[in-house]
Amino acid sequence: MKARFLGIAELTDVPDVAVVVDVMRAYTVAAWAFARGAERVVLAESLEDALALKARHPDWVTLKDGSPAPGFDLVNSPALLRDTDLSGRTVVQKTTAGTVGALAVKDAPLVLCASFVVAEATAGLLRARAPREVTFVVTGGSGRAEEDLACAEYIAGRAGGDAPDAGPYLRRAASSRSAAELTQGVREGSSPEDVALCLELDRFPFAMAAAVEDSLMVLRQVTPTDPHSA
Question: Which top-level enzyme class is recorded in the Swiss-Prot or TrEMBL entry (predicted)?
């Protein structure tokens, strides 16, 4: 399996298989949303689109980066979301990088969204599909965010049949700029606990696949052992 690692702005074609990585925090939060019972996560194009969806579907749960805001139920923090009951709910997520990355490759036949908490499940799904090439979309830091790149490289290694030691990759993420900002409370709408939650390797047994449904980019959980997954 050939792997390439690109920032959002570096995407020039539609990949056959895309893995969109956002460790801190979009796709850690999305995984927690599924763990707390969410049926699906709708990836919104903009804050205005998220609010419009909320207006049409008052029972949907909206979340965003940054501090709380009118019309939004939650913020993009795994620590602040993990005790929320989302059973059967639709979550609308809009973030600065993660959701943007997924929407940038929405025409790809297979789009997976990943972070360390679903790393092995994502790699397992890739091994099952055995694509010739996978494009890893490194969403943070204009494609240079150390936590996202480390996670992407780790998943690529696992998907390619190697057994890399996760330690060095997790340490890279832990020493990243994003981790420092979250720990220091620089980012609004976050908790110092977010870093530890984002670095829980393989916390969940499912992968997450996104596809267009009724004009919306919808993220759902899938399992590598499910013959109908992705």
Answer: hydrolase
Which amino acid, residue 142?
S
Query: Residues 26-71: pLDDT tens digits?
Result: 999 999 999 999 999 999 999 999 999 999 999 999 999 999 999 9
Task: List, in order, residues 6 or more apart from 125 with CB less than 8 Å away.
Answer: 112, 207, 209, 222, 224, 229, 230
Cβ atoms of 189 and 65 closer than 8 Å: yes
Cα 145 to Cα 138: distance, rounded to the nearest angstrom: 7
pLDDT in tens, 118-149: 999 999 999 999 999 999 999 999 999 999 99
Q: Which amino acid is at 39?
A: E
| φ, ψ at 201 (rounded to 5°) | -60, 130
If you ran DSSP here, which 8-state letter would residue 116 be given?
A: G
CA dist 227 to 70, 73, 107, 120, 223, Å? 42, 35, 22, 17, 9
Full-prediction pTM beyond 0.85? yes
Rounded alpha-carbon distances, angstroms, from residue 103 to 93, 99, 207, 213:
12, 6, 18, 13
